[in-house]
User: What shape does this take?
Amino acid sequence: GDSVTQMEGPVTLSEEAFLTINCTYTATGYPSLFWYVQYPGEGLQLLLKATKADDKGSNKGFEATYRKETTSFHLEKGSVQVSDSAVYFCALTPLSSGSARQLTFGSGTQLTVLP
Amino acid sequence: EAGVTQSPTHLIKTRGQQATLRCSPISGHTSVYWYQQALGLGLQFLLWYDEGEERNRGNFPPRFSGRQFPNYSSELNVNALELEDSALYLCASADRVNTGELFFGEGSRLTVL
Assistant: This one.
């Protein structure tokens, strides 16, 4: 079945440091890939997505590129801020007849950014 | 526009009891998903409802069940509660053109004593 593997946390960085959170996946066909973020005390919200190979999703300074050859979707940000402290989830959904099914999530990576 | 709303925010039960959690999707959304977020285990898919029908369920025992009402709201029932059912239960909704982007509520925290 489909699965998502994320780098284990927690990750602690200083403000303005470079961030990479690794994500690899196993799926049949060409799934859509997502990064969701969960700020303290809140529900998950979509950060960015990519729907086909070589697509780059970006939002709020975060980027991730859909790499079919390495089955990866690593999250990067050039300069993190304290406000980026949150839990980050990589996820995928297969598309069937053009419509998504349920999302399969990775285990999440806790990021703490220190001032 | 109101987001996904869940109730109750917190619920405390004892082993063997039943719990009912409720979810109202974003207006116009027809799909509702339920996920369990237990400590340290990430999000585990429970149930997916669309247009009133159960479309898929995750690897959970039958004592986890639910339904979707004609107004697309949903409830999750957990019977014969066990200690390991303690978790945050998240509801999410998606619209008719389901591209995989889910909109999540803030969750219901269930504690089983």
